[in-house]
From TrEMBL:
Family matches, as PROSITE patterns: RIBOSOMAL_S16 (PS00732)
Family membership: Belongs to the bacterial ribosomal protein bS16 family.
HAMAP family: Ribosomal_bS16
Natural source organism: Pelagerythrobacter rhizovicinus
Protein name: Small ribosomal subunit protein bS16
GO aspect biological process, one term: translation
Length: 168
């Protein structure tokens, strides 16, 4: 007979309450069980001591006779220090494939080349001195300032059509 340490659900609708039981693995989840070894109330706070209550001696006995815990019960047993639970994740499975790694390397190389080209262009512009416009070059006249330009454009002649408006 295959024995499982698992949860058996009780409680009302949307108010779950579980018994941690040793049961024949062929029986229904909420059906007949061999022995109740603890309780689990998921509605209580995670740090509440009454959330998971477990009879450690009976849990050790059932594990000793070959009972297999479900995933959730294995977590409870690990937290209680009764049985260490092996990690189920495979961290290497999350790594990208070979082609994705190649694409990432190519992209990084292109970005590095572009950055080097940008730095080289910045250095080239920094090395060439920019012409200063503080003093005019020899033989050329200084550009007119804003006041002089305004005076030059102002004349005593009225604008076209201005005479018509003044007479009217």
């Amino acid at each position: 007979m295959a024995i499982a340490l698992r949860l058996s659900r009780g409680g009302a609708k949307k108010r779950p309450y579980y018994r941690i039981v040793a049961a024949d693995s062929r029986k229904p989840r909420d059906g007949k069980y061999l022995e109740q070894i603890g309780t689990y109330n998921p509605l209580l706070a995670k740090d509440d001591e009454k959330r998971v209550q477990l009879n450690e001696d009976r849990a050790r006995y059932w594990l000793g006779v070959g009972a297999q815990p479900s995933d959730r019960v294995a977590r409870f047993l690990d937290a209680a220090g009764i049985r260490e639970r092996a990690a189920r994740n495979n961290p290497s499975k999350a790594e990208p494939g070979e082609k994705a790694k190649e694409r990432a390397e190519e992209k990084a190389a292109k970005a590095a080349e572009a950055e080097e080209a940008k730095k080289a262009a910045e250095e080239a512009t920094a090395e060439a001195p920019a012409p200063t416009t503080d003093e005019p070059a020899e033989g050329s006249e200084a550009p007119a300032t804003g006041d002089e330009a305004a005076v030059e454009s102002t004349t005593d002649e009225p604008a076209e059509g201005g005479e018509d408006k003044a007479e009217g």
